[in-house]
Amino acid sequence: QAGVFTYDPGFTSTASCDSTITYIDGDKGELLHRGYPIDQLAEQSNYLEVCYLLMHGELPSKDEYEKFVNTITNHTMIHEQMHHFFRGFRRDAHPMATMVGVVGAMSAFYHDSTDIADPRQREIASHRLIAKMPTIAAMAYKYSIGQPFVYPRNDLSYAANFLHMCFAVPADEYKVDPILARAMDRIFTLHADHEQNASTSTVRLASSSGANPFACIAAGIACLWGPAHGGANQACLEMLREIGSVDRIPEFIERAKDKNDPFRLMGFGHRVYKNFDPRAKVMKQSADEVLDLLGIEDNPTLQVAKELERIALEDPYFKEKKLYPNVDFYSGIILDAMGFPTSMFTPIFALARTVGWISQWSEQLADPQLKIGRPRQLYLGEMARDYTPLEER
Ligand code: SDX
């Protein structure tokens, strides 16, 4: 058949890869990080401990944990020269645009951690990225609202530091509520890694060319931005607001089922999960806790979300297509209640996913078998033919 090639299965491709980091059973709705179920990690662990687990394969001892936390805590500031980099963006730039630019430029400031052949430099780059992503995300936010940057503090936890850098202002003392910090830390944990999703595969493909770690992570941030992927949390909250009230839900459910309508229920469905996304269950509990704490239990957006979930899960179409809420369905409600604009939802996802990208990047580089990444294609175009001069066409 013209144009159809059988290709030599002999060459290595990054179309698939072995990994020991994250396991997903989409039918059972199971997610394990180095064997530990995500709900146990979300309830009993914390983000930096999960970072150590993802990077090293085992939970840390007390000494290992304290050393790791100390390393991350003491690298949260960014090079002062990078502050000027932010000022090149328009104030109304989406914070994801700023993050892609600033993270991609990090190799220009941290020359001593770009040689991927040196395991020590790889480790330094990994620590720098985990430590500095909250600072970069918070600075992107502050810049977008015209407020001064707030420097990181070493006396605050990772999540509390991020909230402080986002919401503190020089004119006023901002005390981080420990329950909000716990909820923020749990959101980071729930987004830490997720097997070979689009942005992680982007990072792996970039790393297979030998690109420096900052360039690889910037590529992952760019891919995550899409509304079908990490951009869904922003799109989901905007959708819930557009629905506005429970009596408008049926109209949107019908639109989501109409093949001629491009509308999709944001926060619903998944490439892998054909059952509940286990992260969505934990996120839903956190939403109730945070809104109770903030005294906004009757949050109309949460009411619409819960009713939408109830109706969709009973609808034959969604049952047949096995569409369930995913990680993005409730996260935006919590972030909105915390005071974040929707434009900061995906930057927070990128901040949290950095450790997953880094762990997968390190695993890729440790694989001596891997040749340059080149996904396969099935050629369906024209076979060789002669050029026709313009006057004869
Ligand atoms: C993330 O890969 C990851 O792990 C990603 C992620 C991570 O942690 O990295 O989990 C994060 O990206 C979560 C997904 C966030 N995206 C959204 O919430 C956007 C809305 N969801 C859809 O765009 C969609 O569900 C996808 C893109 C996520 C998955 O699309 P697929 O692969 O087409 O899903 P599917 O094969 O299960 O769909 C089955 C059917 C299809 O219809 P048919 O072609 O069979 O007729 O259901 C339809 C889809 O068109 N469908 C939906 C739908 N999602 C799928 N119909 C209405 N609303 C939806 N949300």
From TrEMBL:
CDD domains for this protein: EcCS_like
SUPFAM superfamilies in alphabetical order: Citrate synthase
PROSITE patterns in UniProt: CITRATE_SYNTHASE (PS00480)
Catalytic reactions on record: oxaloacetate + acetyl-CoA + H2O = citrate + CoA + H(+)
GO molecular function, one term: citrate synthase activity
Record's keyword annotation contains GTP-binding: no
Pathways involved: Carbohydrate metabolism; tricarboxylic acid cycle; isocitrate from oxaloacetate: step 1/2
Keywords (A to Z) from UniProt: Acyltransferase, Transferase, Tricarboxylic acid cycle
NCBIfam families for this protein: cit_synth_I (TIGR01798), PRK05614.1 (NF004126)
Family assignment from sequence similarity: Belongs to the citrate synthase family.
Name the UniProt record assigns to this protein: Citrate synthase
Gene: gltA
